Amino acid sequence: MSSTKSSRLATLSALIAYATAAQTTGSFSLLSYNVAGLPELLSSGNPSTNTPLISPRLKPYSIIHVQEDFNYHAALYASDSHAFRTPTSGGVPFGSGLNTLSDFPYIDFERTKWDDCYANSGDCLTPKGLTFMRVRVAEGVWVDIYNLHTDAGSDSGDIKARASNLNQVSQYIQKWSVGMPVVVMGDTNTRYTRPGDSDSLANILRTNALNDAWVSNVRGGSFPASGSDALVCDFPFAAGTSQAQLVACEVVDKMFTRSSAAVTFDKTTFTNEHYAFVDGKGEPLSDHYPISSRISWKLSSSIRLGDPVGGPHGDPYNDIPRVLGGSLASVAKLTSITIRGAKRVDGISYTVQNPNGASTTTTHGGNGGDPTTLNLNAGERVVKVEACSDTYSGRTRVFFLKLTTSSGRTLQNGKASGDCATSTIPTDAGAGGAQWGLVGFWGRDGNEMDRVGALWGAAY
Asked: In what residue span(s) does the Jacalin-type lectin domain sit (predicted)?
């Protein structure tokens, strides 16, 4: 798998400072749009004229994924005011055409090229693939967002390459998005009615517990039958076509979502935004229809993500599956924790006790440094986590970690340096009146701690 990482747009602490204040419910809007930004001679649209018209119309949407944003990228961004936008990877043949514009800060942005392509539709002429980012919508609301543009065409080679593309997305989700809410949206070039594509779509949805916003909202959860007649949209739609008619047909641009234990997506919508992106004559501004969704979210009253400290190195970890015991009603309690370190934080090891009395020990990072240990007393809980990050050998590491309990006792290791932040227990009531306390961690690690964030649980 080929992958490149963007330079960080800002430190985590700076991004977090920008974000909104704590809230337990809210919503955000999504737009996915293939903007047909191939060079004029190759494009089936009119990008030199239409891209400047698209740009100011992106404003109402919280997070926008675009595909085929190649040779008119500057025009696409020129009249847009979103605070956080990915830098272009270049025009044809150097860039992937995938970019994101967001009202919310993000971390861990990566571009990944497909392992497979089929040459007959020009898919191998550019490094098409997927992008990943972790977006902070609000305090405790971190969402993993994927953009993609899969292999085009309907030949057997296209269908096979597309299956590989979607499987690659699935593998990425299984590694990077454990315990996280997920949004996947982009130009999939797939149809549920097309044999082969239907299997690929079923696999990615089933394997990752994803929900298709179109199938759920328009079709009442009923998938079009594989091998049945394609539900092709008119292009362009006739003037006066209703929204019900706009969404009755199947487009290849799709939106998949899933909730997590920490953040529930209570409601999603699905809209074809055709009328928002037409010229003065009512003609579409691209050869694809833009699709949108509004997601209503709610924070869990049992488990929460604290903001992390650290950098984009190491492998991801998320302890939510370890501390829940399969149910939000059975959050484990922290009983002891050891921090290893000296000049930096090398590793963390902690033990939790599940409601059934069984204990589990989890370790992150390496074995270097000197250990410091805290055994919690009955009724005692960790209520504050302080952490600092700095650079070492070109990598951002966790340099300092300090925990404070409800009894005022502390455990710390490492050396305070660089960017520091403090995370405290949620202020709203926990499920069933339980008190909040530290129950685990999430972040990135290797032979040291690269990033660490608190998992707060209503378990005490």
From this structure: 303-458
